Amino acid sequence: MVVESEIDDQRDFLMRELGKLRTEPHLYTRRGDAVPADAEIVVCDYAPGLDRRLPWMTGEPTAALIVMVPRHEEFSSSMLEAATPDAVLARPFTANAIKAALVMGYSQFRYERRLQSKAARLEENLRAVRAIERAKAIVMTARSLSGDEAYQYIRTQAMERRTTVGQLAEALVSSYDLLGRLPAA
User: Fold this and answer.
1) CB of 44 within 8 A of CB of 61?
2) How would CATH label the architecture of 2-93?
């Protein structure tokens, strides 16, 4: 866990509580432009431009982000939203608030990761289905087969080559496009 915070009366309390939770926090004071991200959880002070200081692109976090908002100073809700934190920790801290922010922040981060993984698999499946449909059309034209027969042909070829139907279909479509869509023999 990385904690990036300026020195204030709450920082020591935060570090003690994180230690009690056995999180092994590593403290950084704001030195440069980028927030350190060499951990699974990053806890950092809110500051204007935080979204630009994050070491990842918006929507592609590499760590759970918990932002500590100031006690007295105003903060911009739109700037905070732009940083897309997984949790927010408001000053003055309490032990329960720290624990809740850690639990919620890390849980939210893992949940979003699972959703991104599912979305990537769905996109991959959709590409495979499109490729299979195009490959079926190519095989139907080239071999004068019905849709079912063309699919069975592609499936058999995939099994013989120990690959997936989607991968074989993508290869067939790529070859067909590369060869300039040769007419059927």
Assistant:
1) no
2) 3-Layer(aba) Sandwich (3.40)
94-122 per-position pLDDT tens digit? 999 999 999 999 999 999 999 999 999 99
* φ and ψ at residue 48, rounded to 5 degrees: -55, 140
Answering whether pTM is above 0.85, one says no
Q: What is the CATH number of domain 120-178?
A: 1.10.10.10
SS3 letters across 43-80: EEECCCCHHHHCCCCCCCCCCEEEEEECCCCCCCHHHH
Strands 26-28 and 2-4: parallel
CA 94 to chain centre: 30
* Count of Cβ atoms closer than 10 Å to residue 39 Cβ: 17
> Alpha-carbon distance 27 to 1, whole Å?
9
Distance (Å, whole) CA 124 – CA 170: 11
Chain centroid offset of residue 157 CA = 35
Domain positions in the chain: 2-93, 120-178
> Which has the closest alpha carbon to 28: 15, 40, 13?
15
Sign of CA dihedral 55, 57, 59, 62: negative
Q: What are phi and psi of 182, to 5 degrees?
A: -60, 145
